[in-house]
Amino acid sequence: MQDLLYFFQQLVNGLTIGSTYALIAIGYTMVYGIIGMINFAHGEIYMIGAYTALIAITGLATLGVTWLPLVLIVALICAMIVSSAMGWAVERVAYRPVRGRHRLIPLISAIGMSIFLQNYVHLAQGSRNIGFPALIHGGFTFGSPDTFQAQISYMQITIFITTLICMTALSVFISRSRTGRACRAVSQDLGMANLLGIDTNRIISATFVIGAALAAVAGLLLGMYYGSIDPLFGFIAGLKAFTAAVLGGIGSIPGAMLGGLVLGVAESLTSGYLSGEYKDVVSFGLLILILLFKPTGLLGKPEVEKI
After folding, report:
1. Contacts 24+ apart (CB under 8 A), 89-96
2. Fewest beta carbons less than 10 Å away: which of 132, 228, 250, 272?
3. Membrane-spanning residues where (predicted)?
């Protein structure tokens, strides 16, 4: 029973982190699915969302607003607005002017934007860790205090529910809305979609905005979960989310969701049963192993070029 509870605890921890990886990974996979490019500034947009949420929470506390639902909603809305605007600006500045050129050019442009945003936050907020208030306390405890107790915190439950709502809303938006259908059309054939009257520039910008908004949600959730943020907060998470997107199949939204969960669980089980020092080794080793046998990822489909 003790071993089962310990495994359950590591599984819950892994699904918690994996859920946020999935939210960030969707931004990578949507952009790649639409224009075939990797947005390496996406991790920094996630980081800016976390900083924006912290500033909003601090401002509300200064004004004496302490009702938790209002604080969380206002912080989330502020983070999504700022991150969405940043995602739109990245597309207009770093991608649109170089779209259609050699693949290395937009790659270098995205890396430059990533470095710019990191240093901007360094200058604006300082390089030190900043504490993020833990607004959600408490949880459920299972097991005997004499052996091992598994815990599911209310924060973890909040992350699960929020991620599920975001994933469901995105799936409905992509499958049912006019813009969602246009996104699917552009991802299949950008040139033909343009000829059929779809404003491809608007759809591409909308893709960056949607990915940035989801990254802002992850920024708020992980900020509260870890309790601190810094200007490099987005680099590691962005790298892990990109790995999750590739693991699940870059360009596939369900693949990004699955890849994030698989990566989070692999990290947690490695930390729990081996050592935290090996979690990155196991995660990237798992990525290499899967790509060796299935190069398109878990749910990715091979590209078919028509001649």
Report:
1. 90/39, 90/41, 90/45, 90/208, 90/212, 91/204, 91/205, 91/208, 92/205, 94/41, 95/35, 95/37, 95/39, 95/204, 95/208, 96/201, 96/204
2. 228
3. 20-38, 45-64, 70-90, 102-121, 154-174, 203-226
Q: Per residue in 166-185, pLDDT tens?
A: 988 988 898 888 888 898 88
pLDDT at 195: 86
Sort residue 298 into left (φ over 0), alpha (ψ -120 to 50) or beta: alpha
What distance in Å separates the CA atoms of residue 162 and residue 16, rounded to the nearest whole number? 11
Of 14-23, 100-109, 126-135, 239-248, the range with the lowest mean pLDDT is: 100-109
What are the CB-based long-range contacts (under 8 Å, 24+) for 273-282?
273/10
Report the C-alpha gap between 175 and 68 in whole angstroms: 33
Strands (E), the chain: 130-131, 139-142, 150-153, 228-229
> Which domains are seen in the chain, by residue range?
2-293 (1.10.3470)
The whole model's pTM is what?
A: 0.90
269 CB-contact burial (10 Å; exposed 0-12 / middle 13-18 / buried 19+)? middle
On the 0-12 / 13-18 / 19+ scale of CB atoms within 10 A, 178 is exposed
